[in-house]
Amino acid sequence: MNIAILSGKGGTGKTTVATNLTMTLGVGYVDCDVEEPNGFIFLAPSIRKKDEVFAEYPIIDKNKCTLCGSCAKACQFHALAKAGKQIVVFEKLCHDCGACKIVCRADALAYTIRSVGKLEEGTVKGISCYRGILKVSEPMAVPVIKKLLKSLPKGDFFIDCPPGTSCNVVSTLRYADAAILVTEPSEFGLHDLKMAVELVKLYKVPYGIIINKDDNKENLVKVFCKNESISLLGTIPYSMEAAALYSKGIMLYENDRYKKIFKSIGNRIKEAFKWKLLC
Ligand code: SF4
Ligand code: SF4
Q1: Which ligand gives the minimal distance to the CA of 71?
Q2: Average pLDDT per run of 10 along the chain, which is 279 residues long?
Q3: What is the pTM (predicted TM-score) of this model?
Q4: What is the dotted CATH code of the domain comprising 2-27+155-272?
Q5: Distance between CA atoms of 170 and 200, rounded to whole angstroms?
Q6: The CATH classification of domain 55-114, taken from the options 3.30.70.20, 3.10.105.10, 3.30.110.10, 1.10.10.10
Q7: Maximum CA pair distance of the chain?
Q8: How far is the CA of 37 from the centre of ligand 2 (A)?
Q9: Quick check: CB of 81 below 6 Å from ligand 2?
Q10: Which residue among 32, 108, 181, 272 is least crowded, i.e. fewest CB within 10 A of its CB?
């Protein structure tokens, strides 16, 4: 089973939850937050495999091109433009949809590739860990995310999603069997959580919420969960102790108090999603 861990809002502790649940339950970890994949900083797996990710974009044969402009009109992503006596290609805007080649009657278009990122695979304490890394200055994360998720073997994984509800998150959710939304009890947290809930509903996967930095009160997120009948999978208390451990790079599950908390959340996740671990 693949369980996507997303947040809506950045900075809620999504990676903290994903990495600590990974170590508590002993299931695989996948970092799809390819613009800033920081899960490996905590997990520190030994890397056993690396792979490059390429994206396609068109090149134009000037000898064949009639400058009809059809390809530029067909491109919905403004990756092609007719400028004077040439067609300009903005390769980083290309979504590799193939429309330009279909409409070109002069057979003047061909595709080439460029490197946009890499994948890494490693192990820590027998647990498999995967991550994608987008190249600096590359604007599109989706090719890296897609290749990363397609390369996964069959198994149980927590997928650490990119923040927000953009197409990067959408492309991750396509591979998810269930979702966990990590939030914090603040107005901003609730606002972005609502967007994440709407997104998850579209995918019709079971989902639940974890509140990080919980104030132990009947806060606005708990009220929202009750009103919307959304399963609250657990809470992680707001504490200086957690911040101190985090600042030293110590994972919370290594501390007895937090180990209990993550074990209890893990049990609720298994129960809520009827999750029978393969390993
Ligand atoms: S569609 Fe083909 S022929 Fe027309 S401008 Fe584009 S590359 Fe040139
Ligand atoms: S492949 Fe699609 S996105 Fe890329 S340049 Fe052609 S039409 Fe535009």
Answers
A1: 1
A2: 89 91 96 94 95 95 96 96 94 93 96 96 96 94 94 94 88 93 93 93 94 90 94 93 88 93 95 82
A3: 0.89
A4: 3.40.50.300
A5: 9
A6: 3.30.70.20
A7: 71
A8: 28
A9: no
A10: 272
